[in-house]
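Sorry to interrupt, but I need a hand with the structure work. Go ahead and set the record down below:
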Amino acid sequence: MNYELSEMSMETGDIGILELLPQRPPFIMVDKLTHFDVKSAKTVFTVCEDNLFCKDGVMEEAGLVENIAQTCAARTGFKQRLENNVSGNDIKIGVIAMIHSLEMKRCPSVGEVLETSMEIEEEHFSTTLVRSEVKTGDELIAFCRMKLFLTDKTPANNN
């Protein structure tokens, strides 16, 4: 099934996050894709005590960076699902090529809900430059620009 993407946002419904990401537990840093459109996406994530990046009740900076990257991956996975009817092990793997203008105002504590948004600034072939920010409530806690590269690999063929 092939869909033509428009400028309108699309309902993400109740699609499980594992259908949109190549990552697998315990390396999942987003709970749900809450918004998708041609140029942007939003996710939510509740910081849990057993998270790989939590230490002494606080999520480390690397966890926030991975949360941003997985927000981008969830958008890409949703787009691949719409355009090519793929999910799970057939979602292409992306890699972080560059992080620019990263500012961490503070690290979130266990129990806080992160609302992460990303917006595409440029997209050329398999390389995308995004601007992203992480909030908890109305408080901006981190932001950056990130360049991502989409590979041809999927979890199913990543040997």
Summary: The chain has a mean pLDDT of 92. Helices lie at 61-84.
